[in-house]
Amino acid sequence: MLKKKKSLVTYTIIMCGLIMTVGIACLLFIQNSIVKDDMELQAYEKLSQETRQVRRFLYYDQSKTPSIVTEYYDRDEELENDDKIYVFLKSPDGDFIDGEMPDGCSGKFPYQSDIDVIGFNGAKYYILTRKAKVGLKTLENDNFVICAMVAVKDIKANYKVLWYRTYTVIGVVALFFILFAIGLKRLVAVPMKELNVAINRSGQNLDFTEKLRYDGPFLELDMITESNNNLYDRVQREFERQEEFNANVSHELRTPVAVMHAQCQLSREIAEKNNDHEMLESIAVFERQTTKMKGLIEQLLQMSILDKNNVNLSVEDVDLLDVVESVCDDAEYICKKNIQFCYNLVPTVVKVNMNLIVIVVSNLVSNAIKYSNEGGTVEVTCGSDSENCYISVRDEGRGISKEQKNRIFESFYRADTVRNTEGFGLGLSQVMKIAKHYGGTVQVDSEVGKGSKFTFIIPVDNG
Ligand code: ADP
Questions:
Q1: Residue 383 forms beta bridges with which residues?
Q2: Which CATH class is domain 219-307?
Q3: Distance 250 CA to ligand 1 centre (A)
Q4: What is the number of the ligand 1 atom nearest to the C-alpha of 414?
Q5: With 0-12 CB in 10 A as exposed, 13-18 as middle and 19+ as buried, what is 459?
Q6: 316-459 domain in CATH 3.30.565.10?
Q7: Of 3-12, 230-239, 267-276, 415-424, where does mean pLDDT reach its minimum?
Q8: Which residues line ligand 1 (CB under 6 A)?
Q9: CATH 3.30.565.10: which residues of the chain?
């Protein structure tokens, strides 16, 4: 079973996106941990500086209980400090004595020589505690403590610019990534798709004269285009060799086969006169085979005429409806199968060579009959729109597989490997050549076991 293939471009974009996301996540993680450490350091510096300051403004009453003198608060206002730092004194029993505490703070926490984070009322604070020294001397009762606190969010706010820049850089990188993805789609995926469509079209129409084109900036795509064009040249040369060979052989065989056919008729007349039944039987076989060979040679000659570039075939105003009706009348008459014919024909006059259109309709209708089952229906349609006119023949026969569909327009290709139906594998090749001669194409819609629809399309203005 074929594994479902992924688009190289989509895959590259997804992988680059993933690598970029992981890279950004790692950088954010590193920056976050650096910022966290730095915030702690900044908080420590601010709080330890503040505790040192407050020592200078301590006042001790008679009972050696400290309090903070008013000048300290006045100084604080003058400094206009950005971050709100709370400083307060605690007694040896842990009771609040003086200073300012954040709302909801109980002040009941143990002495901590290092910076710590505590949380209450849904907010977090850095806290630093120091003994209430006077100069370098600790108080007699050295259990008085100075606490300094600052809200984590206030310190965090100092990094706003850094985070703003980081997110701006991420935004710019993401924007570049989107541009890169769009560029990759436009410069690689779209040209690759177009090359693919062009190659498929050439393969389907067996037309390798139109060269592939790539004007983009990528060397690899240029190389693929060039190697395909080289391959096209070779295939086209092979086709031309084959066409030349067919033309030469059919030309050389035409006269001998015509002579053989004429001789058959003469021999039959003699055998009839002599009443020689054995001879008559053998002549009948000979005549059937020479008729078949004549048909093949005629078909090959017609094809070689179409193969010649700039061939000037006579044209006239042909009503497709008339051609379809007359060819189908004959086909219905000689049809040996039980097949129902239905028609949906619109008068469509177009300037073409009448014989070529007769060949098209005969080939498509005879194939529909040949590959239909007993009791099937064959539907023939003709008409036009503003640009094209068409003849389509639909049957309910055995259908064509996808692999066969790619080859049915090749000369001498027959999907029927048993070869139990008549034909040389030239009919569709001839129909395609005629379509291309008028700048058109032949479309096939088919499903194995359900039937096929062949549509011959040529431009209304094909001159
Ligand atoms: P042939 O003389 O073999 O019919 P064609 O060139 O007309 O040659 O067709 C090529 C092959 O395409 C046929 O051998 C047949 O397998 C397939 N084919 C053509 N028309 C039909 C159809 N209507 N239904 C199924 N297969 C078809």
A1: 390
A2: mainly alpha
A3: 22
A4: 14
A5: middle
A6: yes
A7: 415-424
A8: 363, 367-368, 371, 395, 397-398, 400, 408, 413-416, 423-429, 452
A9: 316-459
